[in-house]
Write a structure and sequence with these properties.
The protein is an all-alpha fold. It is built from 15 helices and no strands. The two termini are 13 Å apart.
């Protein structure tokens, strides 16, 4: 497979996953507006930090509120981190490799892009945001269904899975780290208020990652930081966990032939082993924020190795 083709497939998958993740993140921010003003503002600020769009936002705006953030992160054509840009880029990459994806996969991506115009033309506000988030989650589920149900399990499919797994791992770690810091930043709050705040933040995080039911099934309804981290980092039976993403990533890389990918495969294997055989004691001894930050850097390094090995024209 040509490096250019592999790159289009890889970034198609990353951008589709990124659009879904952004919608889930914004859904959390909408829910956080129900908290006291300071916590709600922290949630809005955190989204800009997680998406890396803080500088771009403040370069064109002087105030931060929920409607302004939704406008910027969903339909702003000048924001390279917006859902609009993600779906546009996904469609462009899909169009470039139209012959390497099935008609069902193309239709899922193209229809999502066309229907997005209806939302961006009228604008998404706090009033209709829940409906928009449900729509985009449904559309990305349709895309995944088409991908898994119709695409040949060849190298093209593997590159799409690699892109998806890297995007998922990065997003899960960033969301987890952001929410952990938001809880840690309020040590002086009254005990009852702090508990309510922490429970609500963990609930919104689990809801955003589609892991709320999995948490209650495994740990019951009592929310604890250690259990949330265990669920989203160390368990391989949770689809969006770091370990599950690394497990699938290692398998996909192993199925790619050729010697060029050895550095990426070796790094992925080392990272997977470190998480697979790690435990909560190690994470809390080092400090969750420090551990998660290092893991985010490791995902970025691994993505860079994949880019160098497979996606750049020799």
């Amino acid at each position: 497979m040509l490096s250019r083709t592999a790159s289009h497939l890889y970034w198609l998958a990353r951008y589709m996953e990124r659009a879904d993740n952004l919608a889930r993140l914004l859904d959390v921010s909408a829910r956080l507006t129900l908290l006291p003003r300071s916590a709600a503002h922290e949630g809005l600020t955190a989204i800009l930090g997680v998406s890396g769009a803080s500088s771009a936002y403040w370069s064109t705006r002087s105030t931060l509120n929920a409607d302004a953030l939704l406008n910027f992160m969903i339909g702003d054509v000048t924001n390279s981190s917006s859902i609009y840009h993600c779906l546009q880029s996904a469609r462009q990459n899909a169009h470039a490799v139209r012959g390497h994806i099935t008609s069902e996969t193309w239709e899922a991506i193209n229809t999502t892009w066309l229907e997005l115009q209806n939302w961006t033309d009228s604008g998404v506000t706090m009033r209709n945001a829940p409906e928009f988030f449900d729509w985009i989650k449904q559309r990305t589920h349709i895309y995944r269904g088409a991908l898994y149900g119709t695409v040949l399990r060849d190298d093209g499919f593997r590159f799409m899975r690699i892109g998806t797994c890297l995007e998922l791992a990065d997003n899960t770690l960033r969301l987890l780290d952001t929410k952990y810091q938001m809880i840690d930043l309020a040590p002086d709050a009254p005990k009852d208020d702090a508990t309510i705040r922490a429970d609500y933040l963990w609930q919104t995080l689990l809801q955003a990652l589609g892991a709320r039911e999995a948490y209650t099934q495994i740990y019951s309804y009592i929310l604890e930081a250690s259990n949330v981290i265990d669920l989203l980092v160390l368990r391989d039976d949770v689809p969006r966990s770091l370990l599950a993403c690394l497990d699938e990533l290692v398998q996909a890389l192993a199925e790619l032939e050729g010697p060029n990918g050895k550095p990426a495969k070796r790094l992925a294997g080392e990272f997977y082993s470190r998480v697979r055989y790690g435990d909560l004691d190690e994470i809390f001894t080092q400090g969750p924020h420090t551990w998660l930050t290092e893991a985010i850097d490791d995902v970025a390094t691994l993505a860079s190795r994949v880019q160098t090995a497979y996606l750049e024209v020799a």
